[in-house]
Amino acid sequence: MRERKTYYTMQELERLSIEAIKTHKLFFLNDIPVYLPISRTTFYDYELNKSDTIREALEQNRIEIKISMRNRWYNSNHPTLQILLYRLLADDEERRRIAQQYLEVSGGEIHASIDVTKLSDDTIRQIREAKSRPAQITDGE
């Protein structure tokens, strides 16, 4: 820990916060005060949580980690990591095609895609029969 002073300027605390973010690879605002010579309350009293510079430094760390992770997934031979990366990169149509179950709600209608490889033959037969039957209209009796 740093030697405690009785007074810090906003600029000093902002600089120390940026230093802590870079040194300790921080991602969240709540983690910063642990590395500062002030209390968490003082951090928020100074409104350092609203500092664009601090928020940008945290965001930069997040971006760097995400890029690093995606690169590792890309270079990996592990199928699960490759599927995760594909899902991140896929457009909506591709995502629907690889989804095991897909549900879309638009205009009050629900359209569902189901992985039919997991349905029993009997269930598939019942679905086909139901689709071929004309709709029945009842008068509420």
Model description:
The chain has 141 residues and is mainly alpha-helical. It has two domains: 10-89; 92-132, no CATH class. Helix content is 53%, strand content 9%. The chain is built from six helices and two strands. The chain has helices spanning 10-24, 40-45, 52-75, 79-89, 92-98, 121-132; strands at residues 101-106, 109-114. It has a two-stranded antiparallel sheet with strand order 1-2. A hairpin with a 2-residue loop joins strand 1 and strand 2 (109-114). Helix 1 packs parallel to helix 3 (52-75). The radius of gyration is 27 Å and the shape is elongated.
Largest sheet: spatial strand order: 1-2
Structural class: mainly alpha
- Provide the succession of SSEs: HHHHHEEH
Query: Number of helical runs?
Result: 6
User: What is the radius of gyration computed over CA atoms, rounded to a whole number of angstroms?
Assistant: 27 Å
- Mean pLDDT, rounded to whole units? 82
Distance between the termini: 79 Å
The overall strand count is 2
> What percent of the residues sit in helical stretches (DSSP H or I)?
40-55%
Instruction: Please report which band the strand proportion falls in: under 5%, 5-15%, 15-25%, 25-35%, 35-45% or over 45%.
Output: 5-15%
Shape: elongated
